[in-house]
């Protein structure tokens, strides 16, 4: 269990998301660290050195394992709260999300 995984949960829960830890991290078909938001895979990292390319490769792999359309890496920042963590996704994945949000927007 990473520090960001356990401290990210209260923020999701405060905003009324029914998110919980996903067990089985590190398995061959790992599906991310948190579950409860339909369509999203979350990979949580609390590292001394951020290696973004490796983190995103893992996030995309776990998104594919889970069969979800969106993958987000939650990366804890040193000496910052979980609310200040980075939420990172690939540009293609971000544009996919924007298309859905903007095409379904009620004006």
What's the SSE blueprint?
Layout: H1 3-14, E1 20-21, E2 34-35, E3 40-45, H2 52-66, E4 70-75, E5 86-88, H3 91-103
Parallel strand pairs: 3-4
Antiparallel strand pairs: 1-2, 4-5
3D architecture notes:
With 107 residues, the protein is α+β, with helices and mostly antiparallel strands. It is 37% helix and 18% strand. Strands 3-4-5 form a 3-stranded mixed β-sheet. Helix 2 links the parallel strand 3 (40-45) and strand 4 (70-75). The longest helix is centred in the middle third of the chain and has 15 residues, at 52-66. The model has no long low-confidence stretch (mean pLDDT 88).
Instruction: Kindly report how far apart the N and C termini lie.
Output: 42 Å
Number of helical regions: 3
Q: Structural class from helices and strands? A: alpha+beta
Q: Tell me what portion of residues adopts beta-strand conformation.
A: 15-25%
Write down how many β-strands occur, each being a DSSP E stretch of 2 or more residues.
5
Shape, please?
globular
């Amino acid at each position: 269990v990473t520090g960001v995984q356990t401290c990210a949960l209260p923020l999701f829960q405060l905003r009324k998301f029914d998110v919980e830890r996903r067990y089985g991290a590190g398995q061959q078909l790992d599906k991310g660290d948190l579950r409860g938001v339909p369509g999203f895979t979350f990979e949580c990292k609390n590292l001394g050195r951020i290696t973004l390319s490796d983190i995103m490769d893992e996030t995309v792999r776990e998104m594919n394992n889970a069969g979800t359309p969106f993958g987000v890496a939650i990366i804890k920042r040193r000496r910052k709260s979980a609310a200040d963590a980075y939420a990172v996704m690939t540009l293609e994945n971000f544009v996919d999300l924007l298309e859905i949000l903007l095409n379904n927007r009620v004006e």
